[in-house]
Structures are given as C-alpha cells and as structure tokens.
Design brief:
Layout: H1 3-7, H2 13-20, H3 22-40, H4 47-72, H5 80-98, H6 101-125, H7 130-148, E1 153-154, H8 160-167, E2 169-170, E3 173-174, H9 175-193, H10 195-205, H11 207-212, H12 217-243, E4 245-246, H13 254-264, H14 276-295, H15 302-326
Antiparallel strand pairs: 1-4, 2-3
Helix pairs in contact: 2-15, 3-14, 4-9, 4-10, 4-12, 4-13, 4-14, 5-6, 5-7, 5-12, 6-7, 6-12, 8-12, 9-10, 10-12, 13-14, 13-15, 14-15
Amino acid sequence: MTELSRSAPQVSPKLGWLTSQTQLVLLVTLFALCLLISLAAPQFYSVDNIIAILRQSSLVLIVAVGMTMLLIAAEVDLSVGASLAFAGVVAMDVTNKTSSVTLGVMAGILFGGGVGLINGLIVTKLRINSLIATIAMMMMLQGSVYLYSREAVQNKHLQPLFTWLSTGYVGPLPLPVVVTAVLFAIGYVVLRHTTLGRYVYAVGANEKAARLSGIRPARIKMLVFIVTGLLTGLVGVILCSLMNAGQPTAGRGFELTVVAAVILGGTSLTGGRGTLLGTLLGVLILKVIDNGIIILRWDQDLQMVIPGFIIVIASYLDLLRKKSNAS
C-alpha cells in the first residue's frame, strides 16, 4: 500500500460511484431541474424560453470549450471576463471608425487572441502561476478599457449585419447557437480524436513525463491560451452585437460562471481529466438555474451566488474522486 493510500481517508462506495459517473449524475440533475421548474412555471417549456436558454448558454459554452482545454492542461484563465468586455469595445470602435463589420469582428477576435498570447507567454516564459498571472491581467484589462474608452461605445452607423451576428437565425436556431455547435464539435474532435488532444491530456496529467516523452508542454499551453483568447474575443463581439454597444463592464463575473460550469462538468482543477460533454451539461445546468430564477421571480442576485456554491461542491467532488482513485 502506498503512502498516499494510507493517508487518504476512505471514500464510501456510494460517493465513489457518484464521482465516477459525473456525466450521468449531471444528466439526471439537468432533467430534474427542468421538471421541477416546469411544474412551478409551465412557461418554462415555451419555444421562446428554450431559445433564450440556448442563446444564453451559447456565450458561456464557447469560452468554456477553451477553458476546459486549459484546465485539462493544468492551467486557468481568470481574465476572460475582462478580455470579453474589452474585445467588444474594440470591435465596436473599429466598426464605427471603418464602417466595416468585418474589420470590427476581426479586431475583437484578434484582441482576445492577443490577450491569450500574453497570458501564455507570462505563464510559460516567466513561469508565473496562471491563477496569479490571469488575475493580474484581469485587473489590467479592467482598468485599461476605461483608458481606451470612458463610456460605452455605441453603434453609430447601426449596421444591420453587426446586429445580425447575435439576433440572426439559421433556420429555427439563433446564429450564436449554430456557431457554438460548430465550435463545440471541433473542440470535441480535437480533444478526443487528435494527437494534439492527447498531448493536452498528457501535459495536464504529468508535465514532466510528457516532456520526457518528447512533448513540448510550453507550446501546448501557449496554444491553448491563444485558443481560449480567440474564443473569448468572439464572445465579446457577439455580446457587443447583442447590446448594440461595447460596454466596459459587460464581462463582470463571466469568468466565474465559465469556471463553475467547467468544474461542475467534471474537469479536474489539477489537470489531466475532463470532457467537453461534461462541460456542456455543466453550462446547461447553470443556465437552466439562471432561467428558473428569472421566471420564478426570485432575487436575481442568486445568479452570482449559485456559481460560488457550485465551485465549492464540484471541487470537493474532485477531491473525493482523487481519493477514490488513490485507494
């Protein structure tokens, strides 16, 4: 028996099963939530409400795809909320100045990618813990966006194409939902069926062993930071389109929602474990809860309280999972 298994408290068989069947438990939880909310508010199952849930979930899920990869690689990015807001301001400002929606969208996405690149360089080159590095980046972005623009940047030219990015439809589905589905599918294939995906898991599980196997962890982490940044920039553009303005405060608390959803989905905080299917279920659970709070007319401040509880509970379940595997 190893020292770890001797020192770790025993996990009950029921808790061990619970932590090993994350996706099944999440699916049952999602079904139960939908059932309970619909019993209290039958309008929950209206077409308009379901579309609203999908639209809200899509913005979180796009960034959560990148965040899942980051956490699997044993890193995290807490600057996504501030980066999202700044990217929206940049996108709207460039659109106004050039009268080109294409240039505005590209500027917003590339700004997010640039933030991801800087985060990656700080973590991989300066060897600064990603939690500390991205908190610092979040603070710098929150201050810098006001230096860039003291107030919200309005859509001066009212381009219909810019508004269509968030309000348009492809068949019966909102455009953001379609974009999310495509990006999710790409992320799923990359993580589960490509060499790059295997490298991400290997780096997160044991960076030293991955390096000895010929993998370059710094490059993998740099790439995942950039991908997360680009996805964040895209969401910043979509949110800016939805509000028809670049709001410097648009992303406050967004990073907590994303991290809560990813952890709830079963991705380990210490890396090497996680799935995008789990993340999808985590996002849907959070957004169904948010929607339930609104239609049941509860205090909407609960929408910020609940992710905090979820982070604590999911982190505890992750700890139980590790103890169960070690015993």
